[in-house]
Amino acid sequence: MDIKELQKIMQENGVVGAGGAGFPTYMKLTDKAEIILMNCAECEPLLKLHRQLLEKHAYEIMKTFDMVAETVGASQAIIGIKKSYVQTINALNQHIEEFPRVKMHLLDEVYPMGDEVVLIYEATGRVVRPGGLPIEQGVAVFNVETLYNVYRAVEEHKPVTCKYVSVVAEVENPVTVKVPLGCTLEEVVAQAGGTTVKDPVYFVGGPMMGRIGNGSDPVTKTTNAILVLPKDHVIVMKKQRTSSIDLKRAASICCHCHTCTDLCPRHNLGHPIDPAMFMMAASNQDFRNVNPYINSAFCSSCGVCEMYACPQSLAPRTLLADMKGGLRKAGIRPPQGVQPKPVQESREYRKVPEERLMARLGLTRYDKDAPLQEELVNVSKVKVLLSQHIGAPAQAIVNVGDMVTEGQMIAQPAQGLSVGIHATISGKVTEVTDRHVVIARN
Ligand code: SF4
Ligand code: SF4
């Protein structure tokens, strides 16, 4: 198979990064990739989906990874996996001799190891420039579930219609389930036997970078986990604070200790992001030097500064995100061509151990197994979003009243960066807008 052919299969079958921002996979398939990297670092605490999926489908995923390396002409195919994932490593070791190009790189249990920029440095020693793409360093990164979706598209001719989602924390039976895209968060949580607290809050994603969701929100191609938390949990309270309060608190109690910058994973890789300098400038409304504001563009929103580092429980990440959004709205683009400084010598000693992070966030008691169930959950209705990826939303090609079958394309890729969207259950189309298609099962 050549690159163009594989790209076409990926775009038509709607394969995008299964997590994060949902970057269309076909755009990562290029002959500029010298190294391809499989991300099995499970960035967020409590999440176990990728190690489980890779353990269960080790052969299929490795075979696909090797095929992608062959197709793009990469000389190395590295699986970045945390050394504590012993069962998954054992499963990989059973097949690794069959794929001489594939190697494992064992990673420490630190956060945010799954951040592409951090992972690339750890596994290859290459530093992606601030605001740059991994491919500029000759690297393309794919997560485990994305590669499994590539396998299904290539080998089984199946488009992306379902998602594995872990349901953890305040639920009867933590579990990882396979659900049709477009079902509700509530339907997913029900698979864990229901919640164990009154007025639960659904935290979608992970504890560090997730967001508070509504029970009626649809599952998308990037929904990895639902954390069910009590409404007075520290993570929920932090998320619900407003930026104006955050700024006032910063002005009154930031002690300029610099810990947020010292522990910032991007700063330690030589990127010009400096949360302490930003907090000082923003809380004093000091605009003599605009760099701390402009450099907010290089924040990855990992949350180390506000969820772990700050002794005063301030919110540099939230305020930086506000600034980034404001600059974008004003049409101010991030500075181009910025080169990183050398990696900080102290970086090794400033990594955030995941165990300490979980303890600080009050999550240790939720660190339990969430076994993977492969049987597809049955729902009666789905609301399939037309934009589940970075780029242009797909364009609906069905009308109200049409009968569709699972896997049928219901929205075609738009011009530019875009992928197709497919029916995730068989049934009748009951609603079509420029944002979604609703299908009711027969
Ligand atoms: S969220 Fe904080 S720690 Fe993370 S990259 Fe941004 S400034 Fe650095
Ligand atoms: S860690 Fe907190 S108190 Fe220290 S400089 Fe950063 S924002 Fe201020």
Describe what this molecule looks like in 3D.
The structure is a single chain. With 442 residues, the protein is of the alpha/beta class. It folds into 4 domains: 153 residues, 3-Layer(aba) Sandwich (Rossmann fold), CATH 3.40.50.11540; 90 residues, Ubiquitin-like (UB roll), CATH 3.10.20; 109 residues, no CATH class; 63 residues, RNA polymerase II/Efflux pump adaptor protein, barrel-sandwich hybrid domain (OB fold (Dihydrolipoamide Acetyltransferase, E2P)), CATH 2.40.50. The protein is built from 15 helices and 19 strands. The strands form 5 sheets. It has a 6-stranded mixed β-sheet with strand order 9-8-10-6-7-12. The chain is globular, with a radius of gyration of 22 Å. The two termini are 39 Å apart.
Detail the topology: elements first, then pairings.
Elements: H1 3-12, E1 35-40, H2 49-56, H3 58-72, E2 76-82, H4 86-93, E3 102-107, E4 110-111, H5 116-124, E5 139-143, H6 144-155, E6 162-169, E7 175-180, H7 185-190, E8 201-204, E9 211-213, E10 225-229, H8 234-240, H9 243-253, H10 259-263, H11 275-283, H12 291-294, H13 304-309, H14 316-329, E11 352-353, H15 354-360, E12 372-376, E13 381-385, E14 395-396, E15 403-404, E16 409-412, E17 421-422, E18 427-432, E19 436-441
Parallel strand pairs: 1-2, 1-5, 2-3, 6-10, 7-12
Antiparallel strand pairs: 4-11, 6-7, 8-9, 8-10, 13-19, 14-16, 15-18, 16-17, 18-19
Helix pairs in contact: 2-4, 3-6, 9-11, 11-14
The structure holds iron/sulfur cluster (2 copies).
One iron/sulfur cluster (SF4) binds at residues 254-260, 275-276, 279, 309-310, 312, 314, 316.
GO molecular function, one term: electron transfer activity
Pfam families: Complex1_51K, Fer4_17, RnfC_N, SLBB
Protein name: Electron transport complex protein RnfC
